[in-house]
Amino acid sequence: MKTNRAWAALAATIVLWAVAFPAIRVGLAGYGPAALALLRLMIASASLALAAPILGLRRPARRDLPLIALAGLTGMAGYQFLLTWGEVHVPAGTASLIIVTNPVYSAVVAMLFIGERMTARQVVGAGAALVGTIAIATARAGVEIDRSAWVILAAAVAFGSYHVAIKPLLSRYSGLEVTAYATWTGTLLLLPGLPALVQAIPDATARATLAAAFLGVAPSALGFVAWGYAVARLPVTTATGALYLVPPIAVVTGWLWLGENPRAIELLGGVLAIASVAFANSRRRPGPDPQRKAPELTKRGSRVRR
């Protein structure tokens, strides 16, 4: 029963995170990038604050506040704002194809700042993922679209950095606690966008406001809660591998909801990016142990017992 619930939580996470990409485009019809990102995090923060007493969230230790601030800056404020800004000109499905490369950039950031080594597969995967991103970025004519694609790449790097920042925190706190701390911090960091949000609310359509509310409650709050539940009960490789389903669902949702039609070169670049991440995260099968000697044979061909 618990395994079935974990699979259901994983499926819910994939769908919620995939639908978030077209929902951002809908929200942008009524709000600017800074206002929408702030509104989304404010709603997510309120949802997590209401759930905190029920779920027993603990107060973080003072020594962990710098890492929590970094997590809020990269994974919440930075990622949400950059992704929202980039989607002003980039279709939802295309954006999801770029964001899915974030595990590769986690490895790069970990190598640069905490001294983790990159394997040969990760180096090759990072290069191939960048090539796929370039193909996506240059698929459509226009300087704004090209620039926005690179902004979304920056969002992928920010999200990859978030995974590195929370790694030490996850040894002391639950995934839900880390998500709550980072979300609240990210909301504070985006407060400079509050005047733009206040100005946009009276003129925003109900559709755009509902999209913002959905983004805050579903992908940002419920999505991370479901993700933490699934990862705690399923193999990590199974859970993370399932995230490769996010871009296809986002592409289909963008087509059905917004009428977006990704170009062939964008899809090819996305396939290359996803394949690169899968290759970088795969492990080589261990070969035969050279230290293990074959059984010696006697002159008659029988094995020598030791």
Automatic annotation (TrEMBL):
Superkingdom of origin: Bacteria
Cross-referenced Pfam families: EamA (PF00892)
Keyword Repeat attributed: no
Region spans: Disordered: 283-306
Keyword set, alphabetical order: Membrane, Transmembrane, Transmembrane helix
Keyword Transmembrane: yes
Positions with biased composition (Basic and acidic residues): 286-299
Transmembrane segments: 32-55, 67-86, 92-114, 123-143, 149-166, 178-198, 210-230, 242-258, 264-282
Domain named EamA: residues: 11-137, 150-280
Similarity annotation: Belongs to the EamA transporter family.
Alphabetized PANTHER family for the sequence: EAMA DOMAIN-CONTAINING PROTEIN (PTHR12715:SF4), TRANSPORTER, DRUG/METABOLITE EXPORTER FAMILY (PTHR12715)
The protein's name: Drug/metabolite transporter (DMT)-like permease
Organism: Kribbella orskensis
